[in-house]
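hi support,

uploading two proteins for the ticket. first:
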Amino acid sequence: RSEVDKADAAKDARAADHLLWLQSKQLLDALDVFDRDDKEQALLFEDQMGKAIAGMNATAAGEALLERWRAAGVSRENLFWRSLAQNQDAIEDEVNQLFNNQGALASLDPSASQNLIKRLADFYDKSHAMMDSLADASTAGPPSSYLVGGAMLINTLGNSLFQSKAASILDKPVNRVFASVLHARLGQFAQHFRLEMRDGRALSRGTTARIDRATTRSIDEALSAGKMGAMTEVRIGGVLVFLEIWNLYNKLTVLHKQSREYVEAVAALVALTAAGVELGACAVSLAERSGNAAVRQGARAFGSGLRLTAGVLAGSAAAVGVRYDIQDWHENYRLGRYSIAGFYLLRSVTQFGSASLSVAIGLGHAGPFFEYLLKKYGTRPFLGRLLMAGSHLSAAMAVRMAPMLRVFFGLNLAILALVLIEIFVLPNDLERFLDHCTFRKNRSNGIVDSEEKEIERMQLAIQREL
């Protein structure tokens, strides 16, 4: 428990600089460069802010700042509402009206709520239309930053709502405003699927209202379902994100980093990103229980795409561990430490299996996402064949999902056991240094190339162990 408290204290201490920067005059001056009446600049601003605030809700201080911003209303210094409004004057005006009328939002029926946010949804539709035009103008689609930044932004700001301890958090008037803005931002996705289901025929006002009511109801029900509801997945995912942040912190606090330490830090960051994307998929699953077919279909496609991304990222991070375990196996085998070499060989094989299964499980979940992409891009020669192959592979993985999950669970338990063995049984950095220093007991052990290198390794070993 004391070690966890130390980790929390270190995490909060490092967060202070980040939060100070987010409130600095220099950052606000830099953000003023973005045009406040331009659709492309709105997407670029959203991209930058998604990266700037990523992870701030993982600390108590960061969440407290988000809470203050959320309650303070629209202003130049309030990056919460400014980010959601894409830095656009017209959207900020609409959000400001919602904020000023927050006391009446809770008593409005779904139809009145929809009318209140209609203009806001229309403004966001212009961003969506620009994304579609960029996708139609190029086989490569819109720039990835236009997609990733918005997803990161919604993930960070959305988690500050969904991860609250109060399951009925939407009852707070200011969070009613926030939910309305998110609803306007994301609600068109379900309407897009309804249009496809109707072969492009325009939606009636009644159909649009039913979709909006279904989206709102599914989120409300999930948030009020208690421990056994969809919020359980989100909260468990939050624990995973915390563990990955802790792992990243440990990698970044290593002084005198060599190339290996930098690569491991990047791998830890990729693993953290994978956990965050998986958490986003859990949040999207809140809408998969909706009684509305379009809402369910949209949530399944979006959520399966997120799970595919999380699987690929997690597999990539694990592959880094495989590479360094093989390197450690070769070094120990060359020095005649066959038992330690066998340990690293076993862990490399286990991690390779885990990495492969991470990608395979992501593919198994990606069926609805591939189906959506095939409908949109299936007529393109190369991309269509690639998506068809991905769809077939996803179907093959899906039928093997149950045994893969059992094996994946077992491999992760094995990896955990091997990590504990490495920590508590195998020689630590200081012991390894003593085995290869000038005064080593076994003179057949190898030695470093120079005195300077030996002193550097000694300092690094002592620093890691003290």
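and the second one:
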Amino acid sequence: MLASRAAICLGPKPASISRPNSPACSRAALPALPLASTENRNIIFPQGQPSLPSKGQRMNEFASRNPTTRFSGLEATYDRYRPDYPEALWKFLQEHCQLPDRPMVVDVGCGTGISSRQMAGRGWNLVGIEPNAAMRQVAESRNGDWAGQLIFRDGKAESTGLPDNFADLVVAAQAFHWFRADEALREFQRILKPHGHAALAWNERDVGDPFTARYESAIQGISPEKAIAESSQAATGEALLRHQLFEAAIRVEFSHQQVLDREGIVGRALSISFGPRDAEGRERLSETMRQLFHEFAVDGKVAIRYRTVAFVAHGRCL
């Protein structure tokens, strides 16, 4: 529980954030909806956040790496070793956003389709937007089970190429920190249907877990500045909480873990965007991971533990 982080709301209504001087909206208020089980989830106001690099420092760090090509050459490793997202997150979005049985969802910055496939598995219709051709090709190659239900197309968060009033839900999973925040949120609002929602999600490593803390320390050894920026990616989601085109914003958390064998923990480390690209550097990092695995493995497995953080809001009318 995160009771020390200011008010925790476990009541029947989602936490809301006031918007001074927000434009009036003709949309009727969404009806109150009882939340799903609060097990492994806290609904909190975005106050009392841990100390993080400034917004300017975070944005400068992310802007210094080309968001379109940052994972070029890593697409297969990324798809194989990056974690998925807890099923409780998708269940929460289904209930909180009051999605229809087969909603239209846009997954922006979908990468190789990890989050897209999970949502398609729930029967949702998906359009995945991804500007990196190699990442998109991997996503398309794994789309056989959802042909006709899930499609991928070239586009950017700030210019998806989709029509107005298109989606019930716009999702950005482990991606929003790469976007130009204001432009992206304006685009999200444009393509949302009335009462449509936007959701920004991240898997943040839980360094309260001993193995995860050691893994985090090893990653920080590659580039402390970039590692610190990576660890604060989710803080960029606060832009949704205060954006004038969205309202009824909340922040939610879920517990998650990724269970890996020795090959998996090596692959997970090699999938980071700022990791070494030269053979010698990759081998050094791989050996560090193998040693860490040897120290912590139980029955040939280790687990990276995560706090999956999501920001959710519904769009105002223009």
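thanks. also noticed: The longest strand covers residues 246-260.
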